[in-house]
Every structure is written in structure tokens, then in C-alpha cells.
Amino acid sequence: MGHKVHPTGIRLGIAKDWNSKWYANKGEYAQYLAADLRVREMLRKKLAQAGISKIQIERPAKTARVTIHTARPGVVIGKKGEDIEKLRKEVSKLMGVPAHINVSEVRKPELDAQLVAESIAQQLERRIMFRRAMKRSVGNAMRLGALGIKINVSGRLNGAEIARSEWAREGRVPLHTLRADIDYGFAEAKTTYGIIGIKVWIYKGEIFDLAAASAESKDDQSPSRREGGEGRRESRREGGEGRRERTAK
């Protein structure tokens, strides 16, 4: 049977970037990795209501820079920046170096796979029907410009005796295309019947290399000139053909 590889892992270096950016020697690598995991776990626990999409960690020159991508930046920052200062101190303590925290706002949470998965999980915990939650999320994503979306829900759906999987899809989700910009998210809903897993794939278009992207942007900047030129050429050709016909007559 076929198995689905992680959509982000297979596209690293092609269409996706790493969430941790640092270099470590053999002796420090495990230390840094464990510190990153502790920081991410702590931030997701403390900012559970802030709608955290992803956390990026960089380590430039004996310091640390943590970027939190969130749908609710006000919850992260707090009144007069009090909450973010507390977080900065805790992150510095966990990482053992001075840390800086940046907050980046996710402007369209309906197009972020992780936030969509967490939203469905919260709805299932509030006993909303899973089909209604899936249909609403699919409709919102397509309305805001997604080219395709797929949602898979697995577990004891509606409290059924036997666990099963159900899915909804609209548009295209080309998992085999490496240049496809596919956002993937996973969340768990802890219901009274057990845990329900939610997976979300959102297709936003294709990512090309730098040369192709720059050429494409140049084409986008001057389409009217080209269209006008082609139109004039066609009209000239038509005029020329007409003149030839007249002379032949």
C-alpha cells in the first residue's frame, strides 16, 4: 500500500524552508536540538489561545532569535509588552543565551493549515459535527484564494464504536509536485470518546526558482504592451491580406 510522506519534509530546500536555522558541531548538535524542542513545547503550552502557526529559531553569534507566527499577536505581546518580556526571559533561560522574540502576524488564518487543523479540533471538542466543521473550513479556504484543500479526520467520529477516517477535498492538491506550495498541519481533538486526529493540506500555487520567478514578475509587469503589439501585428496582417485580395481582383 502507498504511504504519504510528510509534505514539508520532502520539500525542504525546494519549496519550503527550515524552522530552525543554526550550525552546530558534533558535540553541540543534540544540545541545541533539545533546547529547540523545549522552547517550542513551552511556547505552544503558554500560548495555546494565541493561534500559533509556527515557531522559527535562529542562533546568530551566541544569541537566539525566536520568531512566533501567530493569528493573535495581541495575546502574545500582552499589555504594554509585559507578556512578551516574561516569555523572553523564559526562552533565554531554556536556551542558555540572550534571546530576542519577534512576533509575526498571520493575516489569513483560514489559509494556514496548522491553524485550520487546530480550529477543527476545538470545534470537535465543543461537540460540533465533524462534517459541518470540515465543510466550513474548506469553504473559507477556497473563498480566500486557496487553489485546493484536503482535510482528513480519523478516530471515533460522533462516538462510533469503531474508529474510521473521513475526508473532504476541493480543488487540486498535487502531493507529487515538489515545486507545489503545500501547507500541512496536524492537530488532535481530545474528546470524551478518545483522541481524534485532524490532518490538513492546503495548496496555494507553485514556487519556482529565483530566475524563473524574476522572469515571471517581468512578464507580469508589462502584459499590456505585449497584448497591444500582438493586436497591431494582427491588424496589419489582416490589412495586408485585404490589399492583396483587391490587387488580385
From TrEMBL:
<dbReference type="InterPro" id="IPR057258">
    <property type="entry name" value="Ribosomal_uS3"/>
</dbReference>
<dbReference type="InterPro" id="IPR005704">
    <property type="entry name" value="Ribosomal_uS3_bac-typ"/>
</dbReference>
<keyword id="KW-0694">RNA-binding</keyword>
<feature type="domain" description="KH type-2">
    <location>
        <begin position="39"/>
        <end position="107"/>
    </location>
</feature>
<dbReference type="InterPro" id="IPR001351">
    <property type="entry name" value="Ribosomal_uS3_C"/>
</dbReference>
<dbReference type="GO" id="GO:0022627">
    <property type="term" value="C:cytosolic small ribosomal subunit"/>
</dbReference>
<dbReference type="InterPro" id="IPR004044">
    <property type="entry name" value="KH_dom_type_2"/>
</dbReference>
<dbReference type="InterPro" id="IPR015946">
    <property type="entry name" value="KH_dom-like_a/b"/>
</dbReference>
<dbReference type="Pfam" id="PF07650">
    <property type="entry name" value="KH_2"/>
</dbReference>
<dbReference type="GO" id="GO:0019843">
    <property type="term" value="F:rRNA binding"/>
</dbReference>
<comment type="function">
    <text>Binds the lower part of the 30S subunit head. Binds mRNA in the 70S ribosome, positioning it for translation.</text>
</comment>
<keyword id="KW-0699">rRNA-binding</keyword>
<dbReference type="GO" id="GO:0003735">
    <property type="term" value="F:structural constituent of ribosome"/>
</dbReference>
<comment type="subunit">
    <text>Part of the 30S ribosomal subunit. Forms a tight complex with proteins S10 and S14.</text>
</comment>
<dbReference type="InterPro" id="IPR036419">
    <property type="entry name" value="Ribosomal_S3_C_sf"/>
</dbReference>
<dbReference type="InterPro" id="IPR018280">
    <property type="entry name" value="Ribosomal_uS3_CS"/>
</dbReference>
<keyword id="KW-0689">Ribosomal protein</keyword>
<feature type="region of interest" description="Disordered">
    <location>
        <begin position="213"/>
        <end position="249"/>
    </location>
</feature>
<dbReference type="InterPro" id="IPR009019">
    <property type="entry name" value="KH_sf_prok-type"/>
</dbReference>
<dbReference type="Pfam" id="PF00189">
    <property type="entry name" value="Ribosomal_S3_C"/>
</dbReference>
<dbReference type="GO" id="GO:0006412">
    <property type="term" value="P:translation"/>
</dbReference>
<protein>
    <recommendedName>
        <fullName>Small ribosomal subunit protein uS3</fullName>
    </recommendedName>
</protein>
<dbReference type="GO" id="GO:0003729">
    <property type="term" value="F:mRNA binding"/>
</dbReference>
<keyword id="KW-0687">Ribonucleoprotein</keyword>
<feature type="compositionally biased region" description="Basic and acidic residues">
    <location>
        <begin position="216"/>
        <end position="249"/>
    </location>
</feature>
<comment type="similarity">
    <text>Belongs to the universal ribosomal protein uS3 family.</text>
</comment>
<dbReference type="InterPro" id="IPR004087">
    <property type="entry name" value="KH_dom"/>
</dbReference>
